[in-house]
Each structure stands twice: as C-alpha cells, then as structure tokens.
Amino acid sequence: MKLYNSILFGFAFSPSLKVNILESTRIAYYLNCKLILLHVGEKTAEKSAKIDEIISETDYSDSFIEVIWKEGNPETVITKACLDLKIDLLILGALQHENKFQFYVGSIARKLTRKVNCSVLLLIKPAEKRVPCKHVVVNGLDAPETPLAIEHAFFISNLLGAQQITIVEEIHTKEIHVAVEDDRSLKKANIIKQRLRHREDSRVNNIVGTLPENITKGIKVKTQSIFGKRGYSIGHYAEVVRADLLVMNAPIKTSIWHRIFPHDIEYILSDLPTDLLIVRK
C-alpha cells in the first residue's frame, strides 16, 4: 500500500531552511517518495551552493532529490507545479503563530490549502536529528472525506512508527437541544451527550474496521468526543496532549461544507498546535 509517490517542498531562504530540508528528506525517505525542492525566486550561484551543501548533509541518499528554481508569484507557481509534476504531498515550513508565519504561511498557505490538487503538510517543528513520532491526532468529523483522512493518519503512523492514534469527534453543542437550568435538565443533557458519544464512536470504529490490517496493526486507537467549536476544539486538544501530528480533512468547496469548513481550519492555521497534515483526495 502506497498513498504518496512524489513530494514537493516549497522553500524560502529563511533561518530554518536547513532543518526544513533535513526534515523533508527524512519524510520522503520514510514514505519512499521522490522529493522535489522548489524555490520561487532567482537562482544564483550562492543560493545553489547553499542548497547543495544542505543536501550533502542529509542522512539519506540524494538520488531521489531534485531541485527546481522558478520565478513568479509563489501561490501561482506552487499551485501549477503541484499539478504539472503530479505531486501527492506539498510540504511548507511554518512557525507556530500567525503573526510570525514564514514566507509561504499565512494568507498564501490558506489559499494553497484550497487551491492545490494534493495534500499539504505544514511543519512547525522540524528537527535536525529525527524526533520519533509517537502520537497522531486525526479528525473524526462526520464528513465525506473523513475516512480518507483517517486512512492517511494510519498509513503515516505505520511508516513513522507512531504508537497511538486518537480520533477526535467534534460535536456541536447545539446537538444536545437541552437548556441546562436545574439538576433534571443537567441529567438529561448528560444522557444525550452519552448517546452522541456512542453514535460517534460507532461511526468512527466502523471506518477503522474497513482499513487494511497491515496499517492498523500494533497501533493503539483511542476515540475522543469533544463538544465545542469545530476546528478550535481539535486544535486545542492536539496541543494539550502534545500530539506530534494533527491530520485534518482538506477544505471542501462544494455544498454546505464550503461554508462551514473554511472557518474550522482557520482556527488551526492561525495558531498551529503541531505539525499539520491536510489530506486531499
């Protein structure tokens, strides 16, 4: 089973360039993918030498690494490159908070997550030496693309050796339909919450049950129902449990989800709790 064949890392010459490239090559190695490094900007001898030097310091063979230089608008160039090069995963380096986002993150990242034809991985904590991935959190939102996001979470967890996956089911508080005013209404609200949790757990467990055993074996699976604002709740949860990776559905541009999901993911993009994988079919 292989979900990714080619990875594109869009880079700028920032202070974190080296660790981002080292992390990207490590990810490409574990996912057994070709890695393309793309810089939107002028190619100079100095820049080229710096990239070659960093590549020479990677722990893995540079035979699967290609460097491309293009000039133009970053958003347009990267979107077109993902399509033309048949990219499966776009990697972008990021800092954690919106007001400190690097070159491609912020408004450009928001546009890219909706425009590119592939999945997107935002890195906020790349490391020069490998830090094992132990805990992955994935959204269990009741949406058409959720089974794909859960499948990708297991696939990557299996390759990276993660020990636990938590599937977070974000439930709108309005589904309770009870105004808590006294002990009786509180009890009724708790009963409804328990039923909703059971419903969501059953739905998620059915999704996990359809996945190939070779990607689920050996991974501890936990379901977690959260009542609150979608996007914000799962981001806060991933931060509290110190998840190594958060996996989310890609924004959907059709029907009611187009009006709902962009607001959900804005909470994540404005304050990234950890590395974020946005899965697109």
From TrEMBL:
Classification via Pfam families: Usp
Q: Which residues form a coiled coil?
A: none
Q: Which residues form the UspA domain?
A: 58-122
Kindly list the residue ranges recorded as spanning the membrane: none
Q: Which domain of life is it from?
A: Bacteria
Signal peptide limits: none
Q: Which family does it belong to?
A: Belongs to the universal stress protein A family.
- What is the designated name of this protein? Universal stress protein family protein
Q: Which organism is it from?
A: Maribacter stanieri
- What are the top taxonomic ranks of the organism? Bacteria, Pseudomonadati, Bacteroidota, Flavobacteriia, Flavobacteriales
